[in-house]
Design goal:
The complex is a heterodimer of chains A (467) and B (201).
Chain A: H1 6-12, E1 15-18, E2 24-27, E3 30-33, H2 39-48, E4 58-60, H3 79-95, E5 98-99, H4 110-116, E6 125-128, E7 142-145, H5 148-157, E8 159-162, E9 166-173, H6 182-193, E10 201-206, H7 208-211, H8 215-223, E11 232-234, H9 239-245, H10 254-264, E12 277-282, E13 289-291, E14 299-301, H11 316-327, E15 342-346, H12 347-350, H13 353-363, E16 373-377, H14 381-389, H15 392-399, E17 402-403, E18 424-427, E19 442-445, H16 448-457
Parallel strand pairs in A: 3-4, 3-6, 4-5, 6-7, 9-10, 9-12, 10-11, 15-16, 15-18, 16-17, 18-19
Antiparallel strand pairs in A: 1-2, 2-8, 13-14
Chain B: E1 7-14, H1 21-24, H2 44-47, E2 70-73, H3 85-93, E3 97-100, H4 105-113, E4 117-120, H5 123-133, E5 140-144, E6 149-151, E7 157-159, H6 164-172, H7 176-181, H8 184-197
Parallel strand pairs in B: 1-2, 2-3, 3-4
Antiparallel strand pairs in B: 1-5, 5-6, 6-7
């Protein structure tokens, strides 16, 4: 048998049928659903008289629109948001799928809830009407975003019509230096490949620096595979994965655990398996980074300076000029001199307990700079509860952060948490697109440690000066 | 889904690289529970200022391009989120075809689901069509999916590749779900086998 990659193995285990032209019908093990990309899909089912084929494999949670303030159970100000949230409530009940409503402590960002509850397991196919579904690849599951028509297709058939992607290996060798995190790895990879460098590929991240990451860190890395254009990101499961999964509410138990474990241990890329593209970065060379522009590929070490449009070639010249104008930045300005007025810690990229611990470690005993608006939005109600138990919430609040309830919040600003025009935010989220956090708002992406450091100084800051 | 028929229409040049789905349809318009009506907000924050007035410089506000049916775009069009609201907005505005050197994966699939044809061409050919599109309403482009050919008003013809299955679905206006439901027996069989080999799933 020819050697296979991890992706090949998971793919092969889920192909129901393959046509002569390579079009496959792929079985979907888990379908995660949220309120924004599902209403039209459920409506489609209703109009055609179809049911959800596998309600037990379908898990819904509201996250994009939910307010993160304490009054959210009584009151959702925006009427359209309220309708969308109510619609998910109704659809979950009507179609009999698993559901974590806003009132449930387990509610949170869908990509944090899935792993937390043990829905995400190694070797699975996982889809969701959200591009950051790539997050679940950290468990060695093939996970990717789909559009609403495909959401309806999965609801109705539990399958997707797919063409197989190519294999790409991203290896991070060696050790990370102090102050360098999973976020710096994933941003540096996007910086190296460009926003389209992964298009047509599924990435497997490997190497010592990836192995050394916790499950939370691995989720951060896979989460941003999509920002490099890849269909999905994967990391082979290992003892850390099994330890994370064991005992979670929907993880297998007893004899089934043993059977599952035996299969999971076969989920790795065989020696000599073929990759169509390879990128290798040295862990030691990765610095704490920030984005300066309006594409996640616009990444530089915090010690760098704002580039000029003339530093680029082709279509990127005009794009960089536009980005600098939008971001209100002048070429040659040291990044560490760029002031911020807002700090956002949260999102499916960096809203897990380890992220909050890391940010709190920087903030302990310190105050944020006067005039800064800073908020922490935990990724789930359970993350929030754990952070309170560990005393992290007090550290954040003592420093001057707002301590919010779980949701996507200011990552995409569909709820009331938004930037005003011209405001500049140090954000732990995943996209710095124009208008992403609010019309004419300016976003710099970075790690939770770096965001905490920026809150203290009021400017983009090299966290290594504080550790 | 409507059948994809040959288009002859105005092509609008949008050479900016990495045009993302947040640009195509900003998040405040994702709160709808319907598919229709999003064309009014296509490229909203580029097309309109904060007070809702048209930005005169923006290409879709120029008289020649108000009824464009084709976009000739810079690299990596449609990157970012999975929101199908992006192709819904394009289609509702009247755009039925986008031509670029490359598309983001999810957006690319979403187009086919809605009867929009995304065409990938080499850089030189996209540049040629970009120049053609810059001529305004006099430069009409024809897209013939049957022949897999883009042609300009001066008779230049360019062939393109398209996945055969997706092509047929567009030409016939086929609904994927119906096609898959015809394979229910295979799906059931797969589920039985999976229940035996991976009972924990």
């Amino acid at each position: 048998m020819s050697p296979k990659t991890l992706y090949d193995k998971i793919w092969d285990a889920h192909v129901i049928q393959e046509a002569e032209d390579g079009t496959c019908l792929l079985y979907i093990d888990r379908h995660l659903v949220h309120e924004v990309t599902s209403p039209q899909a459920f409506e489609g089912l209703r109009l055609s008289g179809r049911k959800v084929r596998a309600p037990d494999r379908t898990i819904a949670v509201p996250d994009h629109n939910v307010p993160t303030t304490a009054d959210r159970l009584e009151h959702v100000e925006n009427e359209e948001s309220r309708v969308q949230l109510d619609t998910l409530d109704e659809n979950a009940a009507e179609f009999g799928i698993h559901y974590y409503p806003v009132s449930d402590i387990r509610q949170g960002i869908v990509h944090i809830v899935g792993p937390e509850q043990g829905w995400t397991l190694p070797g699975m196919t996982v889809v969701c009407g959200d591009s950051h579904t790539a997050t679940h690849g950290a468990f060695g599951s093939l996970a990717h975003g789909i559009g609403t028509s495909e959401v309806e297709h999965v609801l109705a058939t539990q399958t997707l019509i797919q063409q197989k992607s190519k294999n790409m290996k991203v290896e991070i060798t060696g050790k990370l230096r102090p102050g360098v995190t999973a976020k710096d790895i994933t941003l540096s990879v996007v910086g190296a490949t460009g926003a389209a460098g992964g298009t047509g590929y599924v990435i497997e991240y490997c190497g010592e620096a990836i192995r050394d990451l916790s499950m939370e860190g691995r989720m951060t890395v896979c989460n941003m595979a999509i920002e490099g254009g890849a269909r999905a990101g994967l990391i082979a499961p290992d003892e850390k994965t099994f330890e994370y999964v064991m005992g979670r509410p929907h993880a297998p138990k007893g004899a089934q655990w043993e059977t599952a474990l035996a299969w999971w241990k076969t989920l790795f890329t065989d020696d000599d398996a073929h990759f169509d593209k390879v990128l290798t970065l040295k862990g030691e060379d990765i610095a704490p980074v920030v984005t300066w522009g309006t594409s996640p590929e616009d990444v530089l070490p915090i010690t760098g300076v704002v580039p000029a449009a003339s530093d680029f070639e082709g279509g990127k010249v005009a794009a960089v000029q536009r980005a600098l104008d939008y971001m209100g930045l002048k070429a040659g300005t040291p990044l560490s001199e760029v002031p911020v007025d807002t700090v956002f810690i949260g999102s499916c990229t960096n809203g897990r307990i380890e992220d909050l611990r890391a940010a709190a470690a920087i903030l302990k005993g310190k105050k944020i700079k006067d005039g800064i608006r800073a908020m922490v939005v935990p990724g789930s109600g359970l993350v929030r509860a754990q952070a309170e138990e560990e005393g992290l919430a007090d550290i954040f609040m003592d420093a001057g952060f707002e301590w919010r309830l779980a949701g996507c919040s200011m990552c995409l600003a569909m709820n009331p948490d938004q930037l005003a025009p011209g405001e500049r935010c140090a954000a732990t989220s995943n996209r710095n697109f124009e208008g992403r956090q609010g019309r004419d708002g300016r976003t710099h992406l970075m790690s939770p440690e770096m965001a905490a450091a920026a809150a203290i100084t009021g400017r983009l800051t090299d966290v290594r000066e504080m550790i | 889904m409507d059948k994809f028929q040959t288009i002859t229409g105005v092509a609008v040049p949008m050479p900016l690289v990495n045009i993302d789905t947040d640009m195509i349809i900003p998040k405040q318009f994702l709160k709808t529970v319907k598919r229709s009506g999003l064309g009014a907000n296509l490229f909203d924050e580029m097309r309109f200022d904060k007070d809702g007035n048209e930005v005169p410089d923006f290409v879709l506000n120029q008289p020649a391009y108000r009824n464009a049916e084709v976009i000739v775009a810079g690299d990596n069009f449609g990157c970012g989120s999975s929101r199908e609201h992006a192709p819904w907005a394009l289609l509702d505005f009247g755009v039925k075809c986008v031509i670029s050197t490359g598309f983001a994966d999810i957006f690319f699939n979403n187009c086919f689901q809605n009867g929009i044809l995304p065409i990938v061409l080499p850089k030189e050919q996209v540049e040629l069509l970009m120049k053609e599109a810059e001529k305004g309403e006099n430069a009409r482009i024809t897209i013939d999916l049957e022949k897999q050919e883009v042609s300009t008003s001066d008779g230049t013809a360019i062939n393109f590749e398209v996945d055969p299955f997706k092509r047929q679905c567009l030409l016939d206006g086929l609904d994927d779900i119906d096609l898959t439901l015809e394979k229910s027996t295979s799906i059931e069989k797969f589920e039985e086998q999976a229940a035996a080999s991976r009972p924990w799933v």
